[in-house]
Structures are given as structure tokens and as C-alpha cells.
């Protein structure tokens, strides 16, 4: 395929191949009819995975685990022509080893008596009713479609595979549907039609319960392959969240009000996608605005005022639509005039690939047979009772346009739905429908936005123009009209009317930040002791900030500068998985090397060549060793042997019967299969041309090099050596490329992270903050402006709990404080540190990332974890922090904090893990009590 499958898709396809191979053996050798239930949630890419399976079955797979079976016949059965056509188009687009004439749509033009070997036939149940031409003879057809399939089973049954798309739809228990005729077989004597149950069936569904019950009631053997919702969610194939918006009852003219809000969202998405793709050098996504209108009424094509709809979208967004930018999916309506432009019909399966389309009008036709990742916002005029149709549509809007999660702009991971005629109860009905039949265990969060009050928000570093720029000055507070406290940015500098200078300045003291021991002794953040005497002669540095001017890079967008500095600081974060994917390190090494060459992370652009040379050298060493031992010729002879099976027939003495037994195997030598063996060996070496590189480097002739490569791949010990080499070289490249990965496009950076993550439960990455983040925002709590990321109004609100408020208060008092980041648990962008506890590896997300600026103008970073002393995992987390500090020296402060009562009030006792003495003592602790003693002895105060 010319599209890379996600790791979970590869794993499940490998499982499906194994199950299918066993099923085929049971059918072909034992006559047991087989059914495989393939379950995958909405958005998992069932069609792509099944296309990969078909291509591997007909052409052989890349791993060399499946020999090609080019005579296989596939029937792809669905209940709608659009579903069939969409599946066929995907196979044409992505299956580069299949040819176009292998993909055949079955309709009444078919005239044969049976299906042909090596073809994939697309058939929909709507063409199989009793009045259909396909189920009757005539017009040049001598065979009905039922007879054609029956003839195919009789002639080519061992090569026939039926794939049922959306298999749950026809599995109703109270009636015999057309789909069930394929599963159970049928005979209609009145119509003189019959069909035996198909011998090998794969049923695809997001909700397989009904299909599994049907299969279990048949005479076939049922096997199951299941893709879990978590696998899909973690893959980046789906948007993170669906946001459903609906108005209050008091809103006047709900249609216009909600349409305007939806149009605003669509326009905003257009701008965000344009900025993202422009920066990342990708093709623009061109988001689509989907509008579901009301059914026809009287002579009108829709009860919705379509002219008003398009006119309002144009007015709200500033668009002036031309022909082709607005289309409809009203079936056979043809081109219709709307608001002064001709609006043509566009089939649902063609919408996503037509990049000119901006707005799609539809009624119900898009609920099935449609896949449009470009759909970013939807508004529905439908009434509340139509929850099923809306849920069906949403299930097809949640796919990500680039098949990956967007890290640099959180807003691009959302899809928005606007429902003017729904209330809280009916929205919940939509949510319920999403997880039922059509949603199929939809692996995404569904959040209703009630009363306009979000529980999550997209935040950015960019401040409104009215907000001031940062420096290193302790923050101030300001009372709001509601009485709550707003923490102003610590960098506040203001120009007041009548000021003499247009370049206000902030004086930054040069005293290093300190942690003070309880006895009054100062400790630097790096563990050195200093006098507690005040320094009255501190050098000063001026930081100039200009409002509305551009005197320096820092004054342009200081918070953006902080974010960029963090992303360039090579701070480590980790990904922790519960289960590691089995990894072919040779393949992963080639992929990592190719990524290095392609992105320039390998400065010589020769990483792939080096891997080929290294493996060629391993082959040469192995062959040289065999020849030195005198074993080479014998192994070549053995490699060229082929087996002749023997059947021994022995008559019983009575002469009336005989016994058939397996006789002794005969072997003969031939080089007829040499090319095939060499081809398989090359596949096991990842098909990268290693054999040819070996022949070129060591000047061996063609036949000799083929013998050598076959022998090398067949030796299990050499496989272990090759994997050990590949793992070591892969890790070397991963470490070499890690600091460079921050400068490559996001898609390549995600590919790098995916490769690193794939084979390990714990993988190391560079901490990288996106352009925007999604934050679980508390509606009540502290409102501040000094958080690194803020809302559109320039503020952020967090409900800090426990020891967090006093920790942040102390940090703000430090003269070097710049801003802070709430490191929210389990967010994709959050900084994660692994630690071992209870025999398992867990994830820790330190509460705060604190940014300071030292006397040299450099940013310093602190990870702070206020952690109660009664927690059972204190010591485990502390050891995790020690290991983190040792692996990541670029973080200046890493502290665990506890609240203590002192003579001057409550203060946070801080244990600084960057101190070598603390690291040594913590790692020697065995019990929690040992750690408490270290904390009390080594901790200090800010």
C-alpha cells in the first residue's frame, strides 16, 4: 500500500492474517465453513485495514509472512451503492499493487456464469431484491446472480472470500435479510432460486453483537479479531473531541443565531488550518462547512430557506461563493439556484476529494456512505427527534484530515456541531446514539457545551493587544468587578498618558534564586551554599519593552519567545505504555535512517546506505565463517533441496480394502525456486536491496550472492545478531536525532516519536509545546494573566488545590519569575516522568513548570511537584525524579514540596533533586520513613 498503517492497524492486520490462514486451512482441508468477525470502532480505518489485508492476500505481504494467493476471489458486500463506491475508490487510491481491472462493480451488465479468479467484486444488497434484473435472467443474462455465486462456490470455492461491510445492519433476528442469505444459505422454490452458505466470510462492524449472534447460529466456525477503542483513540486517527452546541430557550430566531456561530467556527478553522499548513509546508486542508437542512415540503426542495442560509454564511464570513464552492447532496435534484449561484449535486463519496468545495447542503444522504475528514463544523436545521441521523453523520466527521493528531494547534483536533432546535435532553440523546449502532463504541469524548460555559478551552500564548508584555518583575494583583483576584503578568510595563519616555524599562535584580535551609543558610538552586547576608550592591540590567513598536525580538511577542525557548531547551518528556508492540528493529532502523536522510537530521544524507553496508558486512562475515569451517557447500545443497510427498497404499490381506499412509519423503535438488527463496529472504531484510548491496560490495556473482543471502536469513543465530545490531543502531540514531527533531516539520516529528515509541513501554522524547493547548479550565478558581497560555481575553482560570496555591504564591514573589504553566495530567502536550511503583511503571505529571530569567538574560526552568507526605508513592516518585534529573540536565530546578509551619508562617519545604547529595541519599532509601528523614534534612525554603 502507498499509505502507512498505524501501529495498531499493523498489529490487527497481522492477527487477521493469522486467523484467516487458519480459517482457510480448516475450510480447504476439513470442509469447515468459516466466519471471521472483524470488529473496529468508528474511525479505526476498517476499509483501509481490509484493503491492506486483500492486497497482502493477493500479492503477498511486506513481512514475508503470507505467500501471495493471486487467484483469490473477493466479494465485497454492502447495503448501499455509495458505501461500495467509496470502498472501491479507497482501494484504487491506496492499493498500489492491485490493478484497476481487478476492482469490479457488479451490476446488471454482468453476463458471465461465474466470477473470475483474481478479482475483487463490489456488490450491494439493493441490487439483489426479487425485482432486480440481477436476480432474473433476460436481456442477455443466462444466469441470475445467485446462480453465478453458486457456480463460483462449486468451481472456485477454496479461493472465494466474502467480506460484509457494516455487517450488523443485515443481522436482524426477526427476519431473513439479503445479507443473511449469504451467511445461512437459502432456497426459494417459488422463484427457483437458492444459494448455499458461503464457505469463508469476514464480517466488518463497529457493533458486532447481532452479526456474531447470527454467525453463532449458523453451521460455520466463528473467529474474532477486535480493534479496541483505546487503540484508535491513541493513534491520532480521530479528532480529540466533538463539541455540541445548542442555544438557550430564550434565544430569538435560533436558526440565524446558531448559523452565525457555526459560520464563525468554520471561518476560524479555515484560518487555523491555513496557518498550520503554511508553516508546516503541507497542502491546505480546505475545511468544509456542513449544513443539514429540513426535508422537502410541498413544491419546495426543503422547508429551510436555502437562500437565507447561504446569504447569511456569506455575510458572516465575508465569503462571496462562486459556482462549485457550494454543493448539495439532495439525490436526483440536479443543479439548483441558491442565492444567485448554481449549486450542483455532488455524490457523498466525491465530496472529500473536491478541494474547491466549501459548503455542503444535505438532508439525510450523508449519514451513510460518506467519509469526509475535512468536515470541521456542522449546523443542523433538523428538529430534536432526528438524533439518529445527526449521530450517524458525526461518526463520519471525527476522522482527522491528516491521519494524525495536530500537536501545535489544539483547536484543529476538535469537530463542532451546532443544533438550534435541541436542548440538553435531546443532546444527550445524540450522545447516546453516537455510542450505539452507528457510533460503534465511538472512541472519543463527547462534550455538551451548556449555557456557553465550556469545561475546556483552547489557549494560546498570544495576548490581546491591551495586555502588557513580560519582564522579570514580581506580579501584582487586581480586583475584578466580581470580587475575584486577577494576578497580573509579572512582566507588566505600562505607558501612561503624558509619560516622558516611550520606552518604559524594568530593572532586573541579579541575585540568583535560592533555596534557604530552615537554619537560615542559603542554598543555590544547584545545591551550593551562600551567605544569608543581603547583597546591597547588586548589578542591574535593563529590559526595554515598547508598546506597539518592534525594538527587539523579545518585545514582539515575549510569551511566544518563552514557548519557543522551552521547545529549544531539549527538555525531556516520556511516553509510558502498558504494553509494548513487538518491534522488528531492522525495519524500524531503516525507517529511522530514511527519516534522517529525508529531513536532513543525518547531515551526510547517508544513514540508509550505512545500514545497508552494515548488514552486508554481517552477511559477508557469516559466509566467510561458513567457508572457513567447510560447511558452506553442504548448506547450499540443502537450500536447493525440495520435497516430494509420498502416499503409500497398502492392501489388506483380504484384498477388499486398503490403508493410505504418509510414506517416506523424497528430496531432489533444483534451482527452479532459487529466485523465489531469494525474494523471500529480501523481504525478511525489509526489501531494501541489501542483497544487491552485498553483491556490489563484495563482488560476488548473482547466483553466489543469492545463495549467501538465503543462507544468512535462514540462520536463526544470525537473525538474533542482526536484531541486536539493529536495536543498538536504532537507539543510537534515535538519540542522535532527538535534539534535531525539534527543527523538523510536525508530521516528521510525529513520525520520529512514533518510531521511538513503537517498541518500548517507556520511550524518551523532547518536550514540545504546541501553538495552542486544550486545558480543562475550572469555572471557579484563580484568574491570572501570568500563565504561559491564556484564553482569548488574555486570562487563565485554575482551581488550585491543596499546597498548590502557596507554592505558586512563593514562586511569584521571586524577582526572576516570568510565568508558569499548569502541567495538566494526561494531556497530550503535558510533560510526563516515569516512575516504578508496585512492580509497574507509572506516569507522573509534575504540577508546575516555572519559568524564570537569570541575570544573564537566559530562561531557567523548574519542575515543581507539591506532594503530600502521607502518599504511599512518595519514595517511588522521588527516585523517578532523580533518574529524570540525571537524564535531563537542561531543567534547572526539580523539586518536591511539602507545606511546613515556620516561625514566619506556613512555607513550602523544598527538596531539590538537582543536588548530587540529594540524589545519592534518595536512591539509598528503602522505606518511606527513610525518605522523610532525607526530606527534612536536605529540604530548604525559598
UniProtKB/TrEMBL annotation:
Residues 475-485 have a biased composition (Low complexity). Residues 464-537 are annotated as: Disordered. Residues 7-210 form the Helicase/UvrB N-terminal domain. InterPro entries: Helicase/UvrB_N, P-loop_NTPase. Transmembrane segments: none annotated. Residues 486-513 have a biased composition (Polar residues). GO terms for molecular function: ATP binding; DNA binding; hydrolase activity. This is Type III restriction enzyme.
Amino acid at each position: 500500500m502507498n499509505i502507512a498503517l498505524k501501529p495498531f492497524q499493523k498489529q490487527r492486520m497481522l492477527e487477521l492474517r493469522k486467523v484467516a490462514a487458519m480459517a482457510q486451512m480448516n475450510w480447504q482441508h476439513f470442509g469447515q465453513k468459516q466466519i471471521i468477525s472483524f470488529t473496529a470502532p468508528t474511525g479505526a480505518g476498517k476499509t483501509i485495514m481490509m484493503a491492506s489485508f486483500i492486497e497482502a492476500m493477493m500479492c503477498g505481504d511486506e513481512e514475508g509472512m503470507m505467500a501471495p494467493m493471486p487467484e483469490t476471489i473477493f466479494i465485497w458486500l454492502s447495503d448501499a451503492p455509495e458505501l461500495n463506491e467509496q470502498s472501491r475508490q479507497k482501494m484504487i487510491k491506496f492499493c498500489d499493487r492491485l490493478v484497476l481491472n481487478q476492482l469490479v462493480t457488479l451490476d446488471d451488465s454482468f453476463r458471465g456464469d461465474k466470477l473470475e479468479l483474481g478479482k475483487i467484486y463490489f456488490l450491494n444488497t439493493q441490487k439483489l431484491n426479487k425485482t432486480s434484473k440481477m436476480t432474473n435472467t433476460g436481456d442477455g443474462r443466462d444466469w441470475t446472480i445467485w446462480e453465478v455465486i453458486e457456480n463460483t462456490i462449486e468451481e472456485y470455492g477454496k479461493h472465494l472470500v466474502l467480506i460484509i461491510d457494516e455487517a450488523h445492519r443485515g443481522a436482524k433476528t426477526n427476519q431473513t435479510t439479503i445479507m443473511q442469505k449469504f451467511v445461512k444459505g437459502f432456497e426459494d422454490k417459488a422463484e427457483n432460486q437458492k444459494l448455499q452458505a458461503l464457505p469463508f466470510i469476514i464480517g466488518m462492524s463497529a457493533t458486532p453483537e447481532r452479526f456474531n449472534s447470527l454467525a453463532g447460529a449458523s453451521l460455520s466456525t466463528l473467529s474474532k479479531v477486535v480493534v479496541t477503542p483505546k487503540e484508535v483513540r491513541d493513534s491520532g486517527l480521530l479528532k480529540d473531541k466533538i463539541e455540541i452546541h445548542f442555544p438557550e430557550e430564550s434565544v430569538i430566531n435560533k436558526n440565524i443565531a446558531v448559523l452565525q456561530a457555526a459560520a464563525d467556527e468554520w471561518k476560524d478553522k479555515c484560518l487555523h488550518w491555513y496557518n498550520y499548513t503554511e508553516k508546516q509546508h503541507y497542502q491546505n486542508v480546505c475545511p468544509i462547512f456542513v449544513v443539514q437542512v429540513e426535508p422537502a415540503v410541498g413544491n419546495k426542495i426543503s422547508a429551510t430557506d436555502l437562500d437565507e442560509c447561504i446569504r447569511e454564511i456569506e455575510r458572516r464570513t465575508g465569503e462571496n461563493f462562486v459556482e462549485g464552492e457550494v454543493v448539495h447532496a439532495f439525490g436526483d435534484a440536479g443543479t439548483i439556484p441558491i442565492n444567485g449561484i448554481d449549486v450542483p449535486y455532488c455524490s457523498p463519496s466525491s465530496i472529500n476529494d473536491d478541494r474547491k468545495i466549501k459548503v455542503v447542503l444535505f438532508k439525510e444522504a450523508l449519514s451513510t456512505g460518506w467519509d469526509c475528514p475535512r468536515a470541521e463544523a456542522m449546523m443542523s436545521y433538523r428538529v430534536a427527534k432526528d438524533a439518529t441521523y445527526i449521530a450517524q453523520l458525526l461518526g463520519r466527521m471525527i476522522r482527522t484530515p491528516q491521519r494524525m493528531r495536530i500537536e501545535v494547534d489544539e483547536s484543529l483536533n476538535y469537530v463542532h456541531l451546532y443544533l438550534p432546535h435541541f436542548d440538553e435532553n435531546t443532546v444527550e440523546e445524540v450522545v447516546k446514539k453516537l455510542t450505539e449502532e452507528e457510533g460503534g463504541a465511538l472512541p472519543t469524548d463527547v462534550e455538551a457545551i451548556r449555557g456557553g460555559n465550556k469545561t475546556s478551552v483552547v489557549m494560546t500564548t498570544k495576548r490581546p493587544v491591551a495586555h502588557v508584555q513580560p519582564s522579570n518583575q514580581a506580579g501584582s494583583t487586581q480586583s475584578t468587578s466580581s470580587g475575584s483576584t486577577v494576578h497580573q503578568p509579572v512582566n507588566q510595563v505600562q505607558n501612561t498618558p503624558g509619560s516622558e519616555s516611550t520606552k518604559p524599562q524594568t530593572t532586573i535584580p541579579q541575585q540568583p534564586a535560592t533555596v534557604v535551609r530552615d537554619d537560615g543558610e542559603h542554598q543555590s538552586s544547584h545545591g551550593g551554599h551562600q551567605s544569608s547576608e543581603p547583597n546591597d550592591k547588586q548589578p542591574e540590567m535593563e529590559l526595554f519593552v515598547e508598546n506597539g513598536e518592534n525594538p527587539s525580538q523579545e518585545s514582539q511577542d515575549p510569551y511566544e519567545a518563552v514557548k519557543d525557548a522551552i521547545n529549544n531547551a531539549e527538555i525531556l518528556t516520556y511516553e509510558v505504555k502498558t504494553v509494548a508492540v513487538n518491534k522488528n528493529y531492522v525495519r524500524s532502523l531503516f525507517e529511522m535512517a530514511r527519516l534522517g536522510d529525508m529531513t536532513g537530521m543525518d547531515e551526510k544524507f547517508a544513514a540508509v546506505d550505512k545500514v545497508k553496508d552494515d548488514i552486508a558486512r554481517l552477511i559477508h562475515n557469516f559466509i566467510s565463517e561458513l567457508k572457513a569451517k567447510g560447511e558452506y557447500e553442504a548448506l547450499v545443497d540443502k537450500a536447493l533441496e525440495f520435497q516430494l510427498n509420498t502416499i503409500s497404499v497398502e492392501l489388506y490381506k483380504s484384498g477388499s480394502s486398503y490403508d493410505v499412509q504418509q510414506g517416506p519423503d523424497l528430496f531432489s535438488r533444483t534451482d527452479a525456486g532459487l529466485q523465489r527463496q531469494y525474494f523471500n529472504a529480501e523481504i525478511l531484510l525489509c526489501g531494501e536491496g541489501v542483497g544487491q548491496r552485498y553483491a556490489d560490495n563484495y563482488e560476488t556473482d548473482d547466483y553466489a550472492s543469492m545463495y549467501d543471502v538465503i543462507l544468512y536469513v535462514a540462520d536463526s543465530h544470525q537473525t538474533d545478531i542482526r536484531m541486536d545490531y539493529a536495536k543498538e543502531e536504532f537507539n543510537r540514531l534515535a538519540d542522535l536525532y532527538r535534539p534535531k527533531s525539534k527543527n523538523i516539520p510536525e508530521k516528521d516529528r510525529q513520525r520520529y516519536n512514533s518510531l521511538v515509541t513503537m517498541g518500548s513501554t517507556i520511550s524518551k522524547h523532547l518536550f514540545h509545546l504546541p501553538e495552542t493547548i486544550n486545558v480543562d479550565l475550572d469555572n471557579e478558581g484563580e484568574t491570572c494573566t501570568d500563565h504561559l497560555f491564556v484564553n482569548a481575553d488574555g486570562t487563565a482560570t485554575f482551581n488550585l488545590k491543596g499546597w498548590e496555591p502557596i507554592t505558586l504564591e512563593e514562586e511569584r514573589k521571586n524577582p526572576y519569575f516570568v510565568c508558569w504553566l499548569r502541567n495538566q495530567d494526561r494531556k497530550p502536550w503535558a510533560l510526563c516522568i516515569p516512575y516504578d511503583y508496585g512492580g509497574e511503571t507509572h506516569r507522573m505529571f509534575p504540577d508546575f513548570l516555572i519559568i524564570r530569567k537569570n541575570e544573564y538574560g537566559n530562561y531557567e526552568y523548574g519542575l515543581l511537584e507539591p506532594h503530600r507526605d502521607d502518599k504511599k508513592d512518595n519514595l517511588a516518585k522521588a527516585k523517578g525524579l532523580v533518574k529524570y534529573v540525571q537524564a535531563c540536565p537542561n531543567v534547572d530546578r526539580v523539586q518536591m514540596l511539602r507545606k511546613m509551619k515556620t516561625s514566619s508562617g506556613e512555607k513550602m519545604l523544598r527538596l531539590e533533586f538537582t543536588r548530587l547529595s540529594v540524589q545519592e541519599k534518595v536512591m539509598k532509601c528503602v522505606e518511606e520513613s527513610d525518605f522523610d528523614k532525607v526530606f527534612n534534612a536536605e529540604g530548604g525554603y525559598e
